[in-house]
Design a protein that fits this description.
- The complex is a heterodimer of chains A (179) and B (337).
- Chain A is an alpha/beta fold and 179 residues long.
- Chain A has helices at 2-29, 39-43, 74-85, 97-105, 154-166, 169-172; strands spanning 47-52, 89-94, 111-113, 127-128, 133-136, 142-145, 148-149.
- Chain A is globular and about 70 Å long.
- Chain B is mainly alpha-helical.
- Helix content of chain B is 57%, strand content 11%.
- Chain B is built from 10 helices and 7 strands.
- Classes of the chains: A alpha/beta (179), B mainly alpha (337).
- The A-B interface holds A 11, 15, 18-19, 22, 25-26, 29, 32-37, 118, 123-124, 127-130, 149-154, 157-158, 161-162, 165 and B 51-52, 54, 126-134, 139, 141, 143, 188, 191, 195, 198-205.
């Protein structure tokens, strides 16, 4: 029993040391949570590489004046506003969802939009953001809108999520799209 | 078929348990109920925090599997209190052994699952995404509440584990011992999970999976140890103390007690663990090769079986020489195992 207690105490001591190390790392790391690949630092004042898959009204690359290089839609506007908030440009690349998520996993893209919901099957290949709006989906279900970012780039994901939540997209949706 | 099973708790197979064991059993049952109820809340808590994060999924699967030992214990306890029936003349004590086996397999399965899952994550360089979480309208990085929750849910486990582990030797219940031992180790799991999450936040994507690998190795070791222990009981290994470390002292004690009778020349004992109680066969060679009287045999049997509540199922077999095929000296087993 006594041995047990000393080893318990020693382990608790080790944990306190570990916590100290973590906190000091947090102190000098800049962002917490941090990006293992430094995405947020790279895109701030630079370029966000965004993948876009056609899914009106969220994303639109073909109707009216919208093109692949200069798309429109609710999510396109959101992402461009976000880019502006961190002094960045958005470089669009259109494609199918699977291809875009593949590029995201290869770290060729920073974010993918295309009317994704939290039911997205890409959960194991991409980091799905927290939902920033609820909308009426097919057959009257309630969809939770999300975007996809690179796995583990937590500072960038947090920064994007924070921006999206502050936009209160729910209230800006047209009446017929609300749940 | 007139032997309907009795089910009041102070009954235990064929005999009443001593007061101390009755109290311990009632307390153990209460603690396992509390464990189960607390688990329901912790699983709900972890599940609600897990969200889309892969990292927390293992955690609530673990909590799910942790339901198995307490529930297996509670079911087994219902069986062991039954009276032996014509179909089950030895009683239902082995239910404990079966429950122990079930719990061990659950533990091992989880350990292996967690190991493979986390090791794969490390090999494929999977960076765990942990984003934002809205709790009551406040947005925070999900890593904070996850880390706090993983430490918090360990606290009741550790306290309950410490309470249970004191009861296990009193009841000679290896299943309860295993469950308590696991609970006691939960604080390590909690701190490792929490620390791993905080390190992920600091940009060390491998920290969470590494913590999980370390935890899983501990769980696999527990699982293997319990599997060996429960199987040893089920295939009638020699009786041991509750922690499986040493041969049970009752073996030698019984032999000495029998050899003190003046009509006994030599005695040998073999016993198997039925879960909480032993099934004991004592061989005696009467002095001068004359058969002991029935009175002497009966008196000795009753005296021996009253030595300890675990010895109630005891038979004495008079023989002319100790049967070598059934009995082994202590020094025989050094080369085995």
């Amino acid at each position: 029993m006594k041995d047990n207690n000393t080893s318990t105490l020693r382990s608790i001591g080790r944990c306190i040391v570990l916590c100290g190390v973590v906190l000091s790392l947090v102190g000098c790391g800049g962002h917490y949570p941090a990006d293992p690949e430094g995405t947020l630092n790279r895109v701030s004042g630079g370029t966000i590489r965004a993948g876009i898959s056609h899914e009106p009204p969220w994303t639109d690359i073909s109707s009216g004046e919208n093109t692949e290089e200069n798309p429109g839609g609710i999510e396109v506007e959101l992402l461009e506003d976000y880019a502006e908030s961190i002094d960045a440009e958005v470089e669009w690349q259109a494609g199918g969802e699977e291809q875009l998520v593949g590029l995201l996993a290869e770290q060729e893209l920073d974010v993918v939009v295309g009317g994704l919901t939290d039911k997205s099957p890409w959960e194991s290949d991409a980091a799905i953001t927290t939902s920033y709006a609820e909308s009426k989906g097919i057959a009257g279900s309630t969809d939770k809108q999300v975007m996809a970012t690179q796995m583990g780039e937590n500072a960038f994901m947090m920064s994007l999520e924070e921006f999206l939540l502050n936009e209160n997209v729910d209230q800006q949706l047209p009446e017929e799209m609300r749940p | 078929m007139n032997s309907k099973p009795a089910r009041h708790t102070n009954y235990f197979g064929q005999h009443d348990l001593p007061q101390e064991q009755q109290d311990a059993l009632a307390r153990a049952v209460r603690l396992e109920w509390i464990s189960t109820v607390i688990r329901i809340f912790t699983v709900a808590l972890i599940f609600s925090l897990a969200g889309s994060s892969q990292a927390m999924k293992a955690s609530w699967i673990e909590d799910g599997l942790a339901f198995i030992p307490p529930i297996a214990f509670l079911i087994a306890v219902r069986y062991i209190s039954r009276r032996p029936t014509p179909r089950h003349p030895y009683g239902f004590h082995r239910a404990i052994g079966v429950g122990h086996l079930v719990a061990a397999v659950a533990l091992l399965t989880f350990g292996l699952y967690l190991f493979v899952e986390s090791a794969m994550g490390l090999v494929t360089l999977e960076h765990p995404p942990i984003g934002m979480l809205e709790i009551f309208g406040v947005s925070v990085w999900a890593g904070w509440p996850m880390a706090v929750a993983s430490v918090l849910v360990a606290i009741p486990s550790v306290i309950l584990g410490r309470m249970k582990i004191k009861l296990a030797p009193v009841l000679h219940n290896k299943m309860l011992y295993a469950d308590a031992d696991m609970n006691k180790a939960d604080w390590m799991t909690g701190l490792a999970t929490g620390g791993g999450l905080l390190l992920v936040g600091a940009g060390f994507w491998w920290a969470d999976a590494t913590a999980a690998v370390i935890i899983s190795i501990g769980i696999i070791r527990d699982g293997v140890r319990n599997l060996r222990g429960s199987l040893a009981g089920l295939i009638d290994a020699r009786i041991t103390t509750t922690d499986d470390n040493t041969p049970h002292p009752l073996l030698t004690e019984l032999q000495e007690v029998l050899e003190e009778y003046d009509w006994v020349a030599e005695a040998g004992v073999r016993a198997r663990d039925q879960g909480q109680v032993f099934h004991t066969e004592a061989f005696v060679v009467p002095r001068g090769q004359t058969l002991a009287t029935l009175d002497e045999l009966e008196e000795a049997r009753e005296y021996c079986s009253d030595l300890d509540w675990k010895l109630h199922d005891l038979v004495i077999i008079p023989v002319s020489v100790l049967p070598e095929g059934f009995l082994f000296r202590d020094d025989d087993d050094a080369n085995e195992e």
